[in-house]
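## retry 2 of 3
previous attempt timed out at serialization; input unchanged, resubmitting
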Amino acid sequence: MIDRELTQENKAWGNSKYATDFDYLMHDYVLKALRPLFLGKECAELGCYKGEMTRKLSKEFSSVTAIDIEEKYCDIIKGMGLQNVSVVQSDFSKYQNYNQFSDLLSLHSLEHVEDDLGLLRHIQTHKSSDTRLHIVVPNGTSLSRQIAVNMGFMSEPLAVTEFEEAIGHHRTYNLELLKDLASRAGLKVIKAGGIMPKIFSNSQYDKALQEGIIDRAYLDAAYALSDELPELCSSIYITCN
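## retry succeeded, writing output
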């Protein structure tokens, strides 16, 4: 069950935002990495939050089914008026119609699932043999996390920080942990990698973007290094059959 209550986050972190401007810019780079791996034109999005990625997916696929356990997020998606998007309120581990889709996308949601192995086994059981599952999660070995450890802000790179715990993270992955998890669930990983080498924290990226210190050209140039430096990227991904 996914717990992303913003009221809990705001109580603990004042004006902190669950999703920063850098997060939203990252959506384009996530799609750029995954687009060549999309199998067909019907997808399910596992976890839709407020619909920013849902809107982008509606332009990538002929039909999108947005699945979320939170009624308020489902209502937001329904109110967006996206003609090729349908909404299902369900726990991912109870939903069974995964075989209806060419592609399943879990984009920054698996870290919110308490029983990640159980969920992936459930999806493997209920999806068709050729359906592709694309998983994107925060990267526990990003350069920004390693710097935070050296500065004394974190105990070790894979630790779940107080902020992450407040917004419902249960764990932090690196590429090997993520690939091993998929393998134990009976999935075959056909591609794995990183998205966007990351030096700063999200709030530092936001400030640098707002003050014109960096721009999209800088982010494009950094993204181009993703394949060379996956272990230092902001996010990691796997695509599985």
